[in-house]
Amino acid sequence: MKRTLRLVLTSLAFAFGAAACASPTASPPPPIIEGNPVTELATVRQGLTSQSFLTGFTEGSGRTWFGGVGGALLSRQGGGPWSFEILPGFGFVTGIWGTADELLAVADFTLHLRVGNNWEPVALPLRTSQFLGLWGLDSEHVWIGGAGGAILFRERGAWQVANVPVSAEIWGFAAESPEDVVAVGQSGTILQSANGLDWETVPSPTTSTLFAVASDGNGRYVAVGGSGTILLRDGDTWEMVPSPVPANLFDVQSTGPGAFTVVGDEGVVLTGNGIQWSVVDVAGGVENFRAIAGTPGALTVAGWFGTIVEQVSGWKTTQSGTRIYAVHAPATGAALAVGQGGIAFERSTTSWVEVSAPTHETLLGVAGPSATDRIVVGDHGTAFHYDGMIWTPEAVPATKSVRSVWYNGTRAMAVGEDGVAMVREQGLWRAIPTNTTRFLRHVFGISWDRLYAVGDSGTL
User: I want to staple 303 with a disulfide (CB 3.0 to 4.6 A). Which of 113, 178, 289, 367 is the partner?
Assistant: First the structure.
């Protein structure tokens, strides 16, 4: 005997057919909820790109550039709209720098020059090292750093291979004059040059990789790197400075004498004078940050999944290509969408507005009877009750990914990785057996006694 079971949620139909023997006591299938068929979907919000950004630069004209994975390039003039393009070759863009007369970018093993609206390769004397950084003091003094201790130096229009005494990766450069140039890199490497071409090692107080270095134009240098490393040179020697965070730090920019901004993993933004540092609060869901660009008071930070954070009346996320995994739209009140890195958006009228979820864990499921009574679940056993204003953490018997949740305001069920299933009654969660270790991807039903979970390998 064949039976077709149809579950219909609003206008979305899901059909499942199976052959089974009928039982005299079998429950009848749920009723079919009639409705108008879906004919099209309209885009109401779209990120610029989901590619991760690795480097940034602002031209003297005020045009800001970010480059990253897959040759992704974003640019805009002042506070205007962003435009997106792809560098030829789709490589990892790890450095952008330029003057009023030229704009350069490095990706993988190639240096590119922007000619009109196109990018053209530039001939170099070295093409066997992956390029990791690009920086210039002026049009006559430009450096490229790379793997294996590679440094290329351009002086008076000619590129030369520099003399470097180490084989460490070279990530960043800074200088206040051609006679005092600093480079930093792998395993705490610090190099110094008096002519840009010949380099020597400098004693370093760390073995953590240093990813960036900057000067404030007044003799003070700051270098940043792995595990929250911050180094200061205010004279002839480098010293370790206490860091307020343990996260990896990837970029530093000076905004004036004794003023620096640093960004890194876990949405970290620091400001300080090189000695003392404070953590900046960033509104909205955040990602791992990699690059800073812009001008003092109007900085822009970029990172994973196309995330852009701007310093406009505080720091807030203005663009994100972060994946959104779940949406809950009650009959009345605000819709809620959640996703990667704890990102969350609410839609109360005609627009989506980012809200601050108190987590950097990826949020994967949301359900509830109303806009003021929802449960949100995610990676590493993350679970919250959200009343439209306050996110209240909930203790669940899971430490891995919780992928989906069903909640009617009284009871809830959540499922996830390794066949985990949990029930919430009277505000408390407990585990229940499922007799499977398959990853359960979704749970849904029309009532507490008619719930279904589906997952990997056709598990139902």
Answer: 289
Tokens of 40: 């099209």
Q: Is the pLDDT of residue 328 over 60?
A: yes
| CA angle 384–389–394, rounded 5-degree value | 15
Instruction: Give residue 380's region: left, alpha or beta (phi > 0; psi -120 to 50).
Output: left
User: Taking Cα atoms as reference points, which of 204, 141, 135 lies closest to residue 177?
Assistant: 141
Alpha helices in 154-216 (DSSP H): none
Which whole number is the average pLDDT over 225-231? 98
SS3 127: coil
Q: Decide: 376 and 384 in contact? Cβ < 8 Å.
A: yes
> How many whole angstroms separate alpha carbon 160 and alpha carbon 178?
15
The Cα 195–Cα 155 span in angstroms is 10
**CA angle, 399 as apex, 353 and 459 as ends, to 5°?**
90
Q: What's the pTM?
A: 0.79
Residue 66 DSSP code: E
Question: 216 is written with which tokens?
Answer: 């404030």
Here the tokens at position 232 are 């200061």
Q: Give CA separation, 346 vs 160, 314, 322, 349, 373, in Å.
A: 54, 21, 15, 9, 14
Higher pLDDT, 253 or 21: 253
**Residue whose tokens read 């530093």:** 252
Three-state secondary-structure class, residue 341: helix
Q: Report how far residue 150's alpha carbon sits from residue 137's, in angstroms, rounded to the nearest whole number.
A: 19
